[in-house]
Specification:
The structure is a single chain. This protein is mostly helical. Helices cover 72% and strands 2% of the residues. It contains seven helices and two strands. It has a two-stranded antiparallel sheet with strand order 1-2.
Length: 264
């Protein structure tokens, strides 16, 4: 396929075009150079695809977290709060798994601490979400690690072809080695063009995943506290004032256990 494309491009090129451009260099490099070029282009395409799809997925969860912090804990129960969340959201999954674990606990025949059972269920839910977020990042890491060496392989082949031309011509003239050396430099540059964005994307997405995992872990802890206390323990909601404390009178009761009253 690459050979056909290169042949078409060469046929369509004007007579005065630079003979040392990308397409002429790949055409002269043969099957090895064209295969290396094709592999690097495919790796670059999938790296960009993973980057943009993961950014969209991460931003969706971040927006869900903002809605959770603003409205979820205003509900009277977890079911009521879950109804306010998107059906397939990460936070909805944690809530649903927590409710399901609480219902399953009563069916267990082997005595297990309720806290351990709920904590294990919520941790399993978190791990499932984090696994989905990390999907595709291994490809970015692999691309960042191997793309320079794939480009280096093309570079070695190009230098080898230049040496062969020098040996055949008997002298190192510019016109004899310009094509193979140009091909070698193109492969080196393309390997870096593919590797550098992949490494940057991997580190950037990993950092965002870590921040999302911390928010999910905090939310899971809040859900666990709510379930373990039958709704008496819940995080403070922004915008709600704490209940007012009773006023302090001039007479206080101290040492109530001993039944002794003192005046201030």
């Amino acid at each position: 396929m690459f050979t056909t494309l290169l042949a078409v491009g060469a046929a369509a090129a004007p007579a005065g075009e630079n003979p040392y451009g990308l397409i002429p260099a790949l055409k002269e490099g043969g099957l090895i150079s064209q295969t290396v070029f094709g592999l690097l282009v495919i790796m670059l395409f999938f790296s960009l695809y993973i980057l943009f799809t993961k950014l969209f997925e991460q931003q969706k969860i971040i927006n869900q977290g903002k809605r959770v912090r603003s409205s979820f804990w205003n509900a009277n129960s977890l079911r009521e709060g879950a109804a306010k969340l998107e059906k397939n959201s990460a936070y909805r999954q944690i809530v649903d798994d927590g409710i399901e674990a609480q219902e399953q606990y009563g069916k267990l025949k082997d005595p297990v601490e309720a806290h351990d059972w709920l904590h294990g269920s919520l941790a399993r839910s978190e791990a499932s979400i984090n696994s989905q977020l990390n999907g595709g990042l291994a490809f970015l890491a692999t691309t960042g690690a191997t793309a320079p060496f794939i480009g280096l392989f093309g570079t070695v082949v190009g230098i080898y072809r230049a040496l062969i031309k020098i040996g055949a011509a008997g002298q190192a003239s510019i016109d004899a080695v310009a094509g193979p050396v140009g091909e070698a430099l193109i492969m080196t540059a393309l390997g870096l063009v593919v590797a550098v964005p992949a490494v940057l994307a991997y580190n950037f997405l990993q950092r965002r995943n870590k921040a999302i995992a911390e928010h999910l872990s905090a939310f899971s802890t809040d859900v666990l506290g709510f379930l373990a206390s039958d709704g008496r323990v819940r995080p403070e909601v922004k915008g709600k004032k704490a209940p007012a404390k009773p006023p302090v009178t001039g007479t206080t009761t101290a040492g109530q256990a001993g039944g002794v009253q003192t005046k201030a």
